[in-house]
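Example 9 (inverse folding). The structure is encoded as follows.
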């Protein structure tokens, strides 16, 4: 086995740029994914799946130099590597608002099938607090018969990228947060990451703290977007122009009023508040503000449709013959990702009016 070979589990919007970042730092990388078509294409140097600037060119060059390979054989990826990076999806079930752990558990089974003494496992998928030192540690120890922080090293390092400029964010824009399940893990993972990212590493107390850092970043955005939405609706009701107020107010350095919008989408910000809420409840803390912010943002598609309907009625238009064009399907400007986009809700509300 090559020294310091990295296996990335899950080659999506996070896993691909991560693989590119480790390649850029000089490591050999194997990419593993359950999507056979994706792996077949990547093996044939067909990189149409990648829409992050800079990633395809790094992949092409590294593949040609034999430093990058792709596989659907998880055991092979695990046993031929000594650094394992988890970037699989960690979605939430929107009915129960509970974390869906299957992809994560399945990736742990894959890693566990080849885990060796001295290996390093870094979880980068966003997870509910306590996951790394709880289910992840337990599962890997059971599967390998090895002890975390003694025989192998385990920690959490959140991905802080913005889709569309992921590689730049990873390599240059932000420090990497690292928290291990023990002191050895923290040291080894932070040493590794200081070789990969320009902005260095912020070491936090433990893996749960690192998990919470990522989730609080999302909660901060969610609450502030909810505030902007509330103030915009307030402004409309009292007859002032929110945009004018915002611009004037933000000329003062302590005011960072966001833009209002039809809601919050993507796989991260709408989901993380629920991870935080559930953990709080389990520990006896009930948050009011986080839940309220979610409720405000989740009501926004409905608010948008109501605004439209008011206009329709005020112009005496006939909804039965009206044709609506919705511009913008992705959850944010300049990205192709439509997952959890509020546009879906706006469209389904409009269809109900037919
Ligand atoms: N997209 C973002 O902007 C962003 C930012 C920060 C953190 N995150 C977090 O990163 C994680 C990954 O997100 P993403 O956007 O890259 O997801 P994604 O859906 O784009 O990609 C996930 C990939 O994992 C693969 N996969 C699923 N189950 C697998 C398994 N058991 N083993 C191996 N591969 C498997 C899928 O086929 C897919 O290719 C999530 O936890 C997400 O919350 C995402």
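The amino acid assigned to each position is listed next.
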């Amino acid at each position: 086995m090559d020294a310091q070979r990295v296996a990335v589990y899950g080659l999506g919007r996070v896993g691909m740029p991560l693989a590119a970042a480790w390649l850029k730092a000089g490591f050999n990388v194997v990419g593993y994914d359950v999507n056979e078509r994706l792996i077949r294409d990547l093996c044939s140097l067909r990189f149409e799946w990648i829409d992050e600037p800079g990633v395809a060119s790094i992949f092409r060059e590294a593949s040609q130099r034999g430093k990058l390979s792709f596989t659907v054989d998880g055991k092979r990826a695990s046993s031929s590597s000594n650094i394992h990076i988890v970037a699989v999806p960690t979605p939430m079930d929107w009915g129960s608002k509970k974390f869906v752990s299957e992809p994560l558990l399945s990736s742990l089974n894959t890693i566990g099938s080849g885990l060796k003494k001295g290996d390093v496992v870094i979880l980068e998928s966003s997870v509910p607090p306590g996951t790394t030192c709880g289910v992840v540690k337990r599962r890997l120890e059971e599967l390998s018969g090895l002890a975390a922080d003694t025989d192998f090293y385990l920690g959490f390092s959140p991905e802080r990228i913005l889709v569309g400029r992921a590689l730049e964010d990873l390599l240059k824009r932000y420090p990497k947060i690292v928290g291990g399940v023990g002191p050895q893990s923290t040291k080894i993972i932070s040493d590794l990451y200081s070789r990969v990212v320009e902005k260095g590493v912020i070491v936090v107390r433990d893996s749960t703290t690192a998990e919470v850092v990522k989730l609080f970043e999302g909660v901060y955005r969610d609450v502030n977007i909810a505030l902007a939405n509330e103030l915009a609706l307030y402004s409309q009701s009292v007859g002032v122009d929110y945009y004018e107020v915002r611009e004037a107010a933000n000329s003062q350095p302590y005011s960072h009023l966001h833009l209002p919008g039809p809601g919050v989408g993507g796989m991260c910000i709408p989901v993380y508040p629920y991870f935080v809420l559930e953990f709080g409840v389990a520990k006896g803390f009930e948050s009011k503000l986080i839940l309220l912010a979610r409720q405000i943002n989740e009501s926004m598609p409905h608010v948008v449709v109501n605004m439209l309907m008011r206009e329709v009625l005020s112009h005496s238009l006939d909804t039965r013959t009206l044709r609506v064009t919705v511009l913008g399907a992705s959850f944010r400007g300049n990205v192709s990702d439509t997952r959890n986009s509020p546009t879906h809700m706006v469209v389904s509300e409009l269809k109900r009016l037919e």
